[in-house]
Structures are given as C-alpha cells and as structure tokens.
Amino acid sequence: MLITCPYCGPRDVIEFTYQGDGNRERPQPASQNLDAWNAYVYDRLNPAGDHNEIWQHSGGCRSHLRVVRNTLTHEIRSTTFARGGHKSADNRAEGRS
Amino acid sequence: MADHQLPERLSPLEPEYHPGSHGNFEHGVDVILSETRPGSILQLAAWPSEEKRLIEAIRKVTGLALPDGAGGGVSNGGRAAFGFAPGKFTVVDEAEGLAAAFAGAITPAIGTLTDLSHGRTAIRIAGPKAEWVMAKFFAIDFALPAFPLGAGRSTNHHDIFAQIQRSGADQFDIYVFRSFARSFWKALCHASEEVGYEVQ
Ligand SMILES: [Zn+2]
C-alpha cells in the first residue's frame, strides 16, 4: 500500500503510523458531558468503504495527515495535511465543547 | 554567545572506517564512501506562515537561495540547505559556528534553530552505482528527474532516520543520528561490496 504524503510524495505504508479514526470529535478536556466522552472513546462508524483516518508520516517528514482510505480495497482516495484548513481530528481548533 | 573552546569532535565511524578499496573492485570501484564531517549541521523550523521569512534568513546568512517546493534544496560544495519537512530545513556548513551566525537572523517570531552539529553524522556516497546502492536501502525514487540536484528527502532505513540530499548527479549526502551512524555505515559498506567501493 502506498500513501502519497503531500510533502514527500508516494511512500510505502511502512513509513506511516496509523493514529486512529478521523471522524471522532474529542470533547474539551474539562467537559463533563459523559455522552460526548462515550462517543469519542467508543463510537465508530466502521464503514465498508471510504473511511476518514489520521496518519502520521512518522518515518519521513513526520507530518500528521488526514487520509481517506477505502476499507474494502485499501485505495487511498485523498491525503491532506491535518493542519491545513480542515477540521482537526480532536476538533479543538473550532473550540467546541 | 560567549566565546568558548569547542571540544574536538571524534568520528563515531572511526573503528569501522577503513580507507582503501574493498569488496568486488577488481574491475573498478563503482562507489566512493566518505564521511564529510561538516563543522555545522543546523535544523531550522518556521512557525506556520513564516516559511518565506525563514528562507530569506537562510539566504542572508549563508548566501544559499532555496528553490520553491517540497524538499527543494541547494548545495554549493562548502554549504548546503534543503527542506526535509513542511517549513523545516537542514542547513550545513563545512565550517563551525553557523548557529552563531543565525542567532540574530532567526527571531522568535520566525521560528527556531537547533544546532545538531554534534548529533548527526554526514556520510557521502558517490559514483556511477550510487543510485543503485541507495535504492537497495531506501524505498524512494533516486532517478535524477524524481530526485533533482540539491533536493532533500526524509526517509529511514530499518528505523534509522535519514535525511538525504543529492549533492551531485551521482552523489548523495546522508545525515543519520550519530548514535546509529556506525551501524548504518557498516551496512552501507556491506551493500557496496558487490559494486566495489573505496573509502576515502
Ligand atoms: Zn511526508
């Protein structure tokens, strides 16, 4: 499986580290909303198809990436920098609680 | 920064550094391996949106004009610079003291400077089979159109991080952690045996 890093170009998957489901919305650390925490820790979409994921190019430029991967075919639909104008994985950039 | 006596730097490769021809060299030496021992190896990082000001600071201090684009770099013999990650650059000088020269140029608003002169070891591989040997080590494209002159790449070999700059058409400079350098060097020597190599 090849992942095309937006900085480094196509690299073998062995250079990357999976950092989890990119659909999760992390509550603010001080939040006492147990439903939100429960959803963050346990709820997963588990799609048979395109899946939003967070990866790090840990064996290369070390950028954190948003990757859309097809769970049936392993096709990588898109890769972008996690910090590049998208909703961050933990949602803190938007300051939601 | 106060003047002080810099400690003499010893090569981590020394016990395994054997000048001369080795391996299958009866029909010629196809790669030359050496340690370049630059006096200064710096890592410069720009805060988001400060990259252009950092590139300008590199130009002012070193005279090296970095080209646009990911992994772009330039090498003029004594000095070299290349991008290795978004907004991050490695800058090398054969002379010591480059960190001090940057001290006033990289302001806290632009980014950070880390002096890795004692933390990295620079290994050069040159010759007609340099691409061939490198391709056995790293899963990246070493062909000249894909990896142009001066450009830099971040990758790794069995968990040993490596920053690689193409410093010639058939020449690469590899920067590895000093603590792993001897192991990496031994592996590189083994990999070069089949083509015949000379250590200079
Ligand atoms: Zn990368």
Q: What do you see in this structure?
A:
The complex is a heterodimer of chains A (97) and B (200). Chain A has 97 residues and is mainly β. Chain A has a single domain, classed as Folate-binding superfamily (Folate-binding fold, 2-Layer Sandwich). Chain A is built from one helix and six strands. Chain A has one helix spanning 34-42, and strands at residues 2-5, 9-12, 17-21, 50-56, 64-70, 76-81. Chain A has a four-stranded antiparallel β-sheet, with no helix packed on it. In chain A, strand 4 and strand 5 form a beta hairpin. The longest helix of chain A is centred in the middle third of the chain and has 9 residues, at 34-42. Chain A is globular, with a radius of gyration of 14 Å. Chain B has 200 residues and is of the alpha+beta class. Chain B has two domains: 14-37 and 119-200, 2-Layer Sandwich (Gyrase A, domain 2), CATH 3.30.1360.120; 39-116, Alpha-Beta Plaits (2-Layer Sandwich), CATH 3.30.70. Chain B has four helices and twelve strands, in the order E-E-E-H-E-E-E-H-E-E-H-E-E-E-H-E. Chain B has a seven-stranded mixed β-sheet with strand order 1-12-2-8-11-10-9, covered by helices on one side. Chain B is globular, with a radius of gyration of 17 Å. Chain B starts with 19 loop residues before the first strand and ends with a strand. Classes of the chains: A mainly beta (97), B alpha+beta (200). At the A-B interface, strand 2 of A face strand 9 of B.
